[in-house]
Design the sequence.
């Protein structure tokens, strides 16, 4: 499987691939026909292989199907629909987008930006009676023109472009080839043992690598079904679960925590809809949350480790009877994984250093960014920017993001270690530790904490609690009790920039 066209060929023609509320089911045969329709429509107006098509659509079956079908003949560039005009201008310009796809009647500021920039606007009109995710395209009078590279995408064509989050620098363009995304989908399918009998409930955003590859492509690669929602909503999750009867779902830790907070009132649904497994990725899952999820759903929880540059998955805890090690992100699950020092030497088992990867799912390199590529690739290995260690059995533990390590007067502190201690306090529901600038020490440890409903704890009490478990220099000097911790666009807690967001820097 080296292209998305080959990937879509896996499903039985009459089996359902996509489903959604108020829509007929979409079969694999219909999705393959839709792909041909999209290819013809784009090729006739001069848009072909490796041309960039930006997608600004709400989370939906149409977003899933347009991502896949556009990538089969051009390059899909999904953008966060909640961006402001200035952000759309930056991204559309940076991508060198040839066209923008929006839903018919869209009020997105991207529409005006595209007009200003002379980017072709294509309107998508959903046709739910023909199947979830089916649509027609209005090319808005674009003049007929031969595409320079028409036809089916090839293995080394770029299927998908995404930007890195850019928390510490200008966002970088990550091109992912058909070979990359197909390999990653297969890696995830192997880890999860997907089959045509699986039905996923997708709550992940579809402008982000986790949702696109693990939520959509991996199950489709094995002929499975994906039910598409409008995004994650903790209030709707259990009613969706009851209606859809999924066999699995994947989410980020903050979503799992929100689901757990409503689980006590939904025990009957949990019993009625037994899950084969639950998957977690995109940021570290506190071992306490993993244990609570497994106890609540009576299903194995597998934590995976992914990043955009690896087309998502790099490592994953195995399903039973394999051993799941809470607090680790599991075994290499696709690319090779090693630990490297700053000089580029590979380190022995048990040594702490930078996690590096190489394999068919890893991006060929950042676009138009020689400096970033020189820093990111060493002797064929991609440097993830994560600090970690491999144990004797090959399980990967992440000890921190190299840029997130707090340097307090020369003492290096992993914020994740402090997180895990605070999570053990019975009153703590959610926590993120981060560095706060300090004029003499360089940085101090800060912690933002959300308490469990109906429970109380003071800043002093929480600091004293950590002092019994951690060396004095690791104890947070400031603990902020909050109703909600600010999150990134994909629902992740982001340490970098947290001090600024909270007015502490």
Sequence:
């Amino acid at each position: 499987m080296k292209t998305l066209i080959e990937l879509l060929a896996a499903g039985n023609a009459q089996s359902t691939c996509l489903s959604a509320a108020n829509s007929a089911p979409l079969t694999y045969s219909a999705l393959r026909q839709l792909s041909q329709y999209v290819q013809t429509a784009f090729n006739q107006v001069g848009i072909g292989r490796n041309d960039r098509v930006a997608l600004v659509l709400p989370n939906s079956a149409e977003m899933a199907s347009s991502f896949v079908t556009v990538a089969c003949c051009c390059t899909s560039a999904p953008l966060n629909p909640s961006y402001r005009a200035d952000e759309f201008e930056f991204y559309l310009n940076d991508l060198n987008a040839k066209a923008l796809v929006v839903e018919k009647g869209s009020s997105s500021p991207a529409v005006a930006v595209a007009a200003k920039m002379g980017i072709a606007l294509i309107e998508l009109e959903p046709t739910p009676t023909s199947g979830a995710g089916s649509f027609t395209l209005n090319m808005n009078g674009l003049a007929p023109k031969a595409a320079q590279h028409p036809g089916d995408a090839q293995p080394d064509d770029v299927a998908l472009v995404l930007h890195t989050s850019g928390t510490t620098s200008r966002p970088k363009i990550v091109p992912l080839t058909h070979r990359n995304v197909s390999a990653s989908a297969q890696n995830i399918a192997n880890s999860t043992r997907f089959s045509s009998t699986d039905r996923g409930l997708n709550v992940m955003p579809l402008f982000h690598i986790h949702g696109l590859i693990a939520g959509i492509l991996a199950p489709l690669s094995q002929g499975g079904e994906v039910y598409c929602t409008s995004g994650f909503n903790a209030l709707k999750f259990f009613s969706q679960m009851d209606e859809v009867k999924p066999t699995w779902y994947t989410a980020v830790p903050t979503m799992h925590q929100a689901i757990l907070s409503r689980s006590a009132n939904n025990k009957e649904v949990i019993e009625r809809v037994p899950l084969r497994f639950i998957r977690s990725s995109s940021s570290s899952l506190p071992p306490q949350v993993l244990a609570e999820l497994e106890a609540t759903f009576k299903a194995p929880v597998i934590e995976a480790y992914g990043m955009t540059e690896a087309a998502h998955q790099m490592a994953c805890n195995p399903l039973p009877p394999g051993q799941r090690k809470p607090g680790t992100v599991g075994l290499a699950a696709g690319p090779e994984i090693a630990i490297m020092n700053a000089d580029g030497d590979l380190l022995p088992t048990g040594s702490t250093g930078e996690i590096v990867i190489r394999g068919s799912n890893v991006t060929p390199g950042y676009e138009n960014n020689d400096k970033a590529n020189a820093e990111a690739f060493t002797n064929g290995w991609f440097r993830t920017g994560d600090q970690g260690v491999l144990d004797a059995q090959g399980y990967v533990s992440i000890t921190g993001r190299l840029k997130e390590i707090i340097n307090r007067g020369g003492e290096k502190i992993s914020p994740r270690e402090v997180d895990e201690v605070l999570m053990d306090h019975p009153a703590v529901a959610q926590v993120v530790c981060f560095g706060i600038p300090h004029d003499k020490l360089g940085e101090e440890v800060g912690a933002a904490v959300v308490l469990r409903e109906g429970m109380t704890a003071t800043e002093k009490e929480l600091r004293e609690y950590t002092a019994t478990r951690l060396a004095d220099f690791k104890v947070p000097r400031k603990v902020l009790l909050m109703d909600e911790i600010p999150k990134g666009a994909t629902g992740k807690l982001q340490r970098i920039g947290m001090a600024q967001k909270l007015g502490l820097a």
